[in-house]
Amino acid sequence: MDNSAIKSKIESANTALGIELGSTRIKAVLVTDDYKVVASGDFVWENELRNNIWTYPIEKVWKGIQTSYANMAASVNEQYGIKLTKIGAIGISAMMHGYMPFDKDGHLLVPFRTWRNNITGVAADKLTSLFNFNIPERWSVAHLYQAILNHEDHVKDIDFITTLDGYVSWQLSGNKNTGIGDASGMFPIDEATKTYDAKMLEQFAGLPEVAQYPWNINDILPEVLLAGQAAGKLTAAGAALLDPSGQLQAGSLIAPSEGDAGTGMVATNAVRKRTGNISAGTSAFSMVVLDQKLNKVHRDIDMVTTPDGAPVAMVHTNNCSSDINAWASVFNQFAKVLGVNLSPNQLYEKLFDVSLRGDQDAGGLVNFSYLSGENITKVQDGRPMMVRKPDSHFTLANIFKVQLYSAFAPLKIGMDILLREEHIRTDVLIAQGGLFKTPVVAQQVLADALNTPITLMSNAGEGGPWGMAVLALYASDTKGKSLADYLDSEVFVDAESSTLFPESESVQGYEKFIDNYKEALPAEIEAGKDMKLN
């Protein structure tokens, strides 16, 4: 499609905007109604540890959204010579889970508590026992119940709780709702009714410590919407929030907001049963769409849904690529001392490539890439740490091989439950995320770690915001199709992909590494206890 055709689509608002608030970047992507990205903009941010709570200040949420939108709109003007005034549909995605409670005047009662916090262990355990359903620590209901158990003063003033994407969507449309995939990270969903589980709502409301409050859990959760439904329209106030310059007009369709897990499933065409995807970035998670019920409750397997409500087994890890980035930064500093300037792509390519010369078990090295706690391995407070024995093979190649190995280690431990205990099988497992921007290397490590073929699609590095834009287009016109059929027949007809298969020698080497990793876990746990944060 040439620039004149793209310009015409933008001017006639045959477009969708996907905005995703990721853990390290907020990105805005403008997509035409043939699913092509025509402009984008972003904003880099990072979570902050305030009073031992991982958070993002609310003012940075809007600074990031406005900056990424402005950069995207500037790109439209630069490439096509027009100002962006109308958008057909808008969808908001963000990091799932967490806790944002508001009072009746719409004021945030406590700073946003992100998925990264593992401060709700008591609440999560009690609710899991009550519901006979796994409640992870990062889920909104766990945060709410922990605040109740802690006798936090703000709880009495709660009028509404939501997630980050639910909050942004509310501010744009005026409507308090969210997509079912995102809602499934707030409170358990009933697959039959496609909304919160009524029995569990009643059980929660009946707890004596909950019943003392003036609100009812039914009334403070956002309305649950399915992909393809409308979440509202962009209001004048919402348009001004997105675009303070005043150029953007109100009236765009707002799609049900979704968590980054849901947009990842859409971006990798993994919403049909027996499909699955893995997203690897600051955190990592795998999503497997189930065609059978699990035999029992697993504390390391979260039950969530696709954006259209199908049950999904999710393995979520709090840590993945952050430690790789830290080590890469150190080597970049060393390169500069030598007078060598490398672009980020060159740097990662060289470091990933050197890992290919490492030993299959990473030379006996063990690395814990834990900037925060890790629920799957029962680590309360994370401390990035590399451990080696005197006879370990300590080389540059092994240093970076163990970085890649350790990035996927908690995910592998969780996935082994699905693969080995529940015997869940998938027809395809598709990977996406920034870790795969460097070709082949991380993809092969993941295939070896899970001992299963891994497919990478051409949009693997930028899936989330594009996936949200696709959901916005689907909300505009479902074409009378289910989401799975829509993706197959409309979006991914000519999709390019590549598949790597596990290599037996590397699989054995990774298993040896993971045995060493598990043996060294007590040292990581003690480091978190003994090395206190300032």
Automatic annotation (TrEMBL):
According to the UniProt entry, the coiled-coil residues are: none
Q: Does the keyword Plastid apply?
A: no
Which InterPro entries would you find in this protein's record? FGGY_C (IPR018485), FGGY_Carb_Kinase (IPR050406), FGGY_N (IPR018484)
| Pfam families, sorted | FGGY_C, FGGY_N
Keywords from the named record: Kinase, Transferase
| Family according to the record | Belongs to the FGGY kinase family.
What is this protein called in UniProt?
FGGY-family carbohydrate kinase
The organism's lineage is: Bacteria, Bacillati, Bacillota, Bacilli, Lactobacillales
